[in-house]
Each structure stands twice: as structure tokens, then as C-alpha cells.
Design goal:
Layout: H1 2-30, H2 37-62, H3 64-85, H4 92-98, H5 106-117, H6 123-128, H7 146-153, H8 157-163, E1 172-175, H9 179-188, H10 190-193, E2 198-201, H11 208-217, E3 222-225, H12 227-235, E4 246-249, H13 278-305, E5 308-312, H14 320-325, E6 337-344, E7 348-349, E8 352-359, H15 366-370, H16 374-377, H17 381-384, H18 408-411, E9 417-423, E10 430-431, E11 434-435, H19 442-448, H20 460-463, H21 493-499, E12 507-514, E13 524-525, E14 528-535, E15 546-553, H22 563-589
Parallel strand pairs: 1-3, 1-4, 2-3
Antiparallel strand pairs: 5-15, 6-14, 7-13, 8-12, 8-15, 9-10, 9-14, 11-12
Helix pairs in contact: 1-2, 13-22
Biased composition (Acidic residues): 1-11
Subcellular location: Membrane
Keywords: Membrane, Transmembrane, Transmembrane helix
């Protein structure tokens, strides 16, 4: 109803508009009756033009919303036209879908053969490969099924299959592009094959040896397979071409990617496929077990000859008082000295290395490792007084002064000092001389760690003005070494060694190397009585840790570490157990003639 009423109303408005225009135009024609015809014609034209103008004006006034709707419709039409004008980009799939498959011709097949043998055969041999067109039976009708096509090619199939009696050979060989296509072709052969035996020749869950056995057991008339597996059977002489009379190529079929059999690129790379039999696997296992055993024994002997001595001084000797003192942060500024006596039962020959060791100290925590500023440690002026946010809360002190070096790693630096004394049987006590420099890596000393630039008039202390030492330090960074002024700042060896985090909670780090140029230490560290005088600064009570002095020799294998020899011995045992199990299985199962591969 509403639509009908609306349509009638629009027609009424249109008619009324036209009548008004006619009424306005009638007096104009009556006022000039005596003029010439030419003038009348001109007047008529003027009247028509004026009526058109008035009509347009009135339609605009009365039908303004109609014109708006019309403009919207025009805009929609124009947008639709623009959309239609935009052409979709054609893909390879679209092109192949629109194109129809072309049946194979003798020329196509010959060009395929020549391209395949062009690099391996001479020109004369390629000419000998040329076959006559009568050797090819092409399928012109693309609507044929496999069975109907084969019935036209082999009209006397029942007689031919009875005459075939050879093993490892077939009468009809169909080559497909994939295993799935081969299965479809076999299903379509039901109406054609009759009583003939059909064999699948592709590599989908079927081994080459199994297919050779199937070809050897009985007479096979039809074989459907892929090029790769057919070539493998021909190379191993599991399939011969003596009884072959028809070779059918699945030329026109296209897969989901619209590729034909000849469109699929084949690539052959040289490879070695070892035959895993009991005769090859079992000796390999026993040899590997022996190799790992010999390596484990050799490394174990080397580690046993590497002598190492550990002296735990956490709360030993007179250090118990210092241990209790360092539990409280109030006493951190108070110096505490203690000593521990120990005995060296065996002479350390050659170079001797002194380490400090910590237990239950986890340097491998992520937040701890990230709490440092490597750009500040390089000595850049911009970063010296503007430490990285990763160092928080050890980037600024309570007064807002930047800390150098910043971060939790530098703040927890090991700061105990040792003095080792030797008590010979004949003579007075003497201090064991140590090299305290040159214990850091070259790349760390010269690349990763550098001091701010200085000169003769601008000292290192002036370069660090405006910064403050870390919270748990007792000295600023430019006064770490009183004996050598060149070993201060960010290039201090002890600082560099500490800044290289350890991977395990129990670790040791180099403290010094024996100076063999003095007194009785030319041959190494002699056996006898010793003592350590310790400036006890580093607290271990909060994290329930322990501190120790480690004296060790170093060989080509490194220090005394039992991990690698034990790993080799355990690996040798596991391989030996596996070899014994495989040997038992082979003796019980393989000797009875059963297939070991199953």
C-alpha cells in the first residue's frame, strides 16, 4: 500500500508541475499573434526554453530529496563501475585453469627424450634414439577413460595376457606422475584388466626389495608406477623390458597444482645410502664403545696427574670472628684480618695458579647478569654519568649521584685479599710471590673495558669526578690497586675477571700466578707448611655460601675436572649395553631366518 500510494503521489506532483508550466506559457503565445512566422518560430523556441528552465527549477524545489537519492544512486553506479574496471591479477593457477590440456604428440615425446639425454649422449646416439611416428599411439579423445583408451590400444588383450609367462617383466607399463594418481589409475583398470595381475610400483610405504620379490614370485601383466621407482627397479634388474609391449604415459592428467607429469621438475643429487645390517651396525657399536672407553681412561689419567688443593677459609682458623662480623652490614667499613694454616703434601711442578672459589653463588641469574652497563665500562663520557636503566637500583645513590661502575655485578665484586706465606724446614718464613697482572683475557683488557680518556694534566681521579663508588665497595674504582697505578679504573684485572659471569653456582676465578723467578719457587710450589693471611671483606653468610683458596696445576686439558672423562666412560658403557642387546636380538631372531627389518 505504501509503495503504491507513494508512486501515485509522485505522478501527481509531476503532472501538477507540468500543468503549471503550461499555464504560465499560454499568455505569452497570445500576446503576439500578428508577428511573422519566423518570429513565431523564434517565440516558440523561447517559450520551450523557458518552460524547460521553469520545469527544472520547480523539480528542484519540490523534489529536492529525490535528486539527492538520484545522486546517491549515481554515485553507487559509478563506484560499481570503478570496481568492475579493476581487473584481478591473473595467477599461474588461473592461467592453467582456463587453458585446456593438450594431448601428447610424437614430437612432444621425442623432444622430451632428447632433452633428457642431451647431456649424457652424443649427437650420433641421440639420432639413434629417434623413433617413427608409428611407434606412438596417441589419445586424441580427452574424454576417454583409462579402460576405454586401453581397449582401443589393445583390442586383443585377453589373448596377449595368456601368452605372457615371463617373471620380472610386464606386458603393459603405465607411468604416472605420483603415487596417488597411480592408485586412481589402478581403480579405473577394473573394467579392462580381466584376470590379469596388476602391481603397484611406487615408493609410498613399499620397499624396493619387496617389489622385486613380488615381480619374481609370479607372472605380472600390468604395472602402474612412478618414474623414480621404475628407474630404481630397472637399475637393480628387478624389472626387465623383455616382455614389455605397451608403454603408456599419463600425459594429460594434471594434479591439484595443475601440473602434468612432464611439468614436475626432477632433481637427483649424489648421496650415499648405507645398508644397515647386523654385519655393519654391530661392529660399529663395539668400535665406538672401545674408542669412548680409551678416551675416558686417558682423560681420567690426565686429570689424576693434575694436582689441586682447596683450602676452605669461610670460618676456619681465626676467620670465624670475621665471618660473624660480615653478617651485619653495619660492620662493612670495618677491616677484619684472619689467617688459616694448611699443608701441601706434594710439590706442584711447573706453573701454579691461585684461584678464589665461591660456592652457592648464582651468577647465572638473568636479572643479575643484565644488571650492568657495558657502554659505561668502555669509558664513554656520555654513559659514565648517565648509567643504563638496567643497572637499577644500583645506578644512582640516595643523593642522585651516578655510580661507577653501576649494576649488581660490579656491586658484588669479590674483594678479599690474600698473602700466602711459606715456612720451610730450614730457614725463615717467606712470602709466596704472585703475578697479579695479566690474569684477564686480552680482548677484555683491550676491547671491552677501557678507562675514560686522561692525560698528564687530567688524572683518572678527575675523570671519575661526579661519580661515586658502588654501595658495597670500600674503595673507589680509581684506587683499586695501590701497588700499580696503571691497574686502576675499569681496566683493573680483578674487576675484569669478576665481570665475566660464571655458568654454575660453584666456581673459581683466577687470583694470581706463581712467580717462579724467586728463591725456592723456580721449580714450582714446594711441599711443606703454609699459611694464608686474609683481609676478610666479602660476606657469604646471606646466601649461605663458602669461600676457598684453590691452588692448581694446568695441563693441556686444563685444570682438574672429572666431568669429561666420566662422560666418556658413561657413554662407552651405554653403547656397549646397546651393542650387547642388538647382538642378542640378532642371535635369537636373525639366525632363524626371520626378516630383521620387520
Amino acid at each position: 500500500m505504501a509503495d503504491d500510494l507513494g508512486d501515485e503521489w509522485w505522478t501527481q506532483e509531476d503532472n501538477s508541475g507540468v500543468s503549471e508550466v503550461e499555464e504560465d506559457t499560454q499568455p505569452i503565445t497570445e500576446e503576439q499573434p500578428n508577428k511573422s512566422t519566423s518570429k513565431k518560430r523564434k517565440g516558440e523556441k523561447q517559450i520551450q526554453d523557458s518552460t524547460k528552465k521553469k520545469k527544472r527549477k520547480k523539480t528542484v524545489k519540490k523534489e529536492c530529496f529525490i535528486t539527492q537519492e538520484g545522486s546517491e544512486e549515481k554515485g553507487d553506479k559509478e563506484s560499481n563501475k570503478n570496481k568492475k574496471r579493476r581487473k584481478k591479477k591473473k595467477t599461474i593457477t588461473d592461467v592453467l585453469t582456463s587453458s585446456e590440456p593438450v594431448p601428447g604428440t610424437p614430437a612432444d615425446l621425442m623432444s622430451l627424450l632428447k632433452n633428457h639425454y642431451s647431456q649424457t649422449r652424443s649427437v650420433i646416439e641421440q639420432e639413434e634414439l629417434t623413433l617413427k611416428d608409428s611407434c606412438f599411439l596417441s589419445c586424441n579423445d580427452l574424454t576417454h577413460s583409462v579402460s576405454s583408451y586401453l581397449k582401443e590400444v589393445c583390442p586383443k588383450w585377453a589373448k596377449i595376457q595368456k601368452q605372457h609367462t615371463q617373471t620380472r617383466s610386464v606386458v603393459l607399463l603405465i607411468v604416472c606422475g605420483s603415487a596417488l594418481r597411480a592408485i586412481d589409475v589402478i581403480k579405473q583398470l577394473m573394467a579392462f584388466k580381466g584376470q590379469a595381475k596388476v602391481l603397484k610400483l611406487f615408493a609410498k610405504h613399499i620397499k624396493v626389495d619387496d617389489q622385486i620379490k613380488s615381480l619374481s614370485k609370479g607372472v605380472t601383466h600390468i604395472a602402474v608406477g612412478t618414474p623414480g621407482r621404475i628407474c630404481a627397479l630397472l637399475e637393480k634388474e628387478g624389472l626387465t623390458v623383455q616382455g614389455l609391449r605397451y608403454l603408456v604415459l599419463d600425459w594429460n592428467y594434471r594434479d591439484q597444482k595443475l601440473r602434468r607429469m612432464v611439468d614436475m621438475p626432477e632433481q637427483r643429487l649424489p648421496a650415499w645410502s648405507p645398508s644397515l645390517t647386523a654385519q655393519t651396525v654391530l661392529p660399529t657399536f663395539y668400535i665406538l664403545s672401545l674408542v669412548c672407553l680409551f678416551l675416558g681412561i686417558w682423560l681420567l689419567i690426565t686429570v689424576e696427574n693434575t694436582y689441586e688443593l682447596k683450602v676452605d677459609y669461610t670460618n676456619a682458623g681465626t676467620c670465624e670472628r670475621c665471618f660473624e662480623m660480615r653478617k651485619h652490614a653495619i660492620n662493612s667499613r670495618t677491616t677484619c684480618t684472619c689467617s688459616v694454616n694448611f699443608y701441601v703434601p706434594k710439590t706442584f711442578s711447573g706453573d701454579v695458579f691461585f684461584y678464589y672459589g665461591l660456592r652457592n653463588f648464582h651468577q647465572n641469574l638473568r636479572r643479575y647478569m643484565d644488571s650492568r652497563d657495558d657502554t659505561q665500562m668502555v669509558g664513554r663520557k656520555n654513559n659514565l654519568k648517565a648509567p643504563s636503566s638496567y643497572c637499577a637500583p644500583f645506578d644512582y645513590d640516595a643523593n642522585g649521584v651516578p655510580i661507577a661502575p653501576c649494576g649488581a655485578v660490579a656491586n658484588s665484586m669479590f674483594n678479599d685479599s690474600f698473602t700466602v706465606m711459606y715456612y720451610p724446614t730450614n730457614g725463615p718464613e717467606m712470602q709466596v710471590p704472585l703475578y697479579r697482572k695479566g690474569i684477564a683475557w686480552y680482548t677484555d683488557k683491550n676491547v671491552k673495558f677501557r678507562n675514560p680518556p686522561t692525560n698528564n694534566t687530567f688524572t683518572l681521579q678527575q675523570a671519575f669526578e661526579g661519580t661515586i663508588r658502588p654501595l658495597y665497595w670500600q674503595r673507589p674504582v680509581y684506587e683499586l690497586d695501590d701497588t700499580d697505578l696503571n691497574n686502576n679504573g675499569f681496566i683493573n684485572d680483578d674487576l675484569i675477571v669478576w665481570m665475566r659471569e660464571a655458568a654454575f653456582p660453584n666456581f673459581k676465578k683466577l687470583y694470581g700466578v706463581l712467580n717462579r723467578a724467586q728463591g725456592p719457587f723456580t721449580q714450582g710450589l714446594p711441599a711443606g707448611n703454609y699459611s694464608i693471611s686474609i683481609i676478610y671483606n666479602f660476606p657469604v653468610g646471606p646466601f649461605r655460601g663458602q669461600k676457598e683458596l684453590v691452588i692448581s696445576m694446568v695441563t693441556w686439558f686444563g685444570g682438574q675436572n672429572y666431568f669429561l672423562p666420566i662422560a666418556y666412560l658413561v657413554t662407552s658403557g651405554l653403547i656397549l649395553v646397546a651393542a650387547i642387546v642388538l647382538t642378542t636380538v640378532y642371535v635369537k631372531v636373525g639366525k632363524k631366518g626371520k626378516n630383521m627389518e620387520e
